[in-house]
Amino acid sequence: MSTNPRFGAAWFLFALSLVLHVVDEANHNFLAVYNPNARMIRERFHLPIPVFTLQTWLLSLGIGITLLLLLTPSAFRGARWLRWIAVPLAIVVGIFNAFGHIASSFYYHRFMPGVYSSPILLASATFLLIASRSKPSSNAATA
């Protein structure tokens, strides 16, 4: 059986860091910053940027994070298809997201919602990205 405990741990830690990040954003009123910007982008550039209520935002993120957690056993088994999904997930949801919060905090000269958990998200996304490229180990069954 082929296993990849490093990738499984990275996947699980990434999911937990997303939980922390969502709690950070929710506690610091992220939607009060996000929604007006989303409306402005929609009007100015005619892009389909979603606007959320707190309930729909939390529900959609909760479903996504639950799915990540449910896939954790597959990550520990070293599912190859999951390693392919991990790369864009780590880059977009982790690295770009974390840098967005950090950069906007510098730009606006104040701590933006989600910035406190961004270093943890960035670290776990980097770990997931590195672990997704590692080779699964083969465990020989011993009788």
The major beta sheet can be summarized as: 2 strands, antiparallel
What is the CA-atom radius of gyration, in angstroms?
A: 17 Å
Number of helices: 6
How many beta strands in the DSSP annotation?
Answer: 2
- Helices and strands, in order, run as EHHHHHHE
Could you tell me how far the N terminus lies from the C terminus, measured between alpha carbons in angstroms? 14 Å
Overall form: elongated
The oligomeric state is single chain
Weakly predicted, low-confidence segments: none
List the domain count as a whole number.
1
Strand content: under 5%
Q: Can you tell me about this structure?
A:
There is one protein chain. This protein is mainly α and 143 residues long. The protein has one domain. Helix content is 73%, strand content 3%. The protein is built from six helices and two strands. It has helices at residues 5-27, 30-45, 54-70, 72-76, 80-108, 118-132; strands at 2-3, 137-138. It has a two-stranded antiparallel sheet with strand order 1-2. The radius of gyration is 17 Å and the shape is elongated. The model has no long low-confidence stretch (mean pLDDT 93).
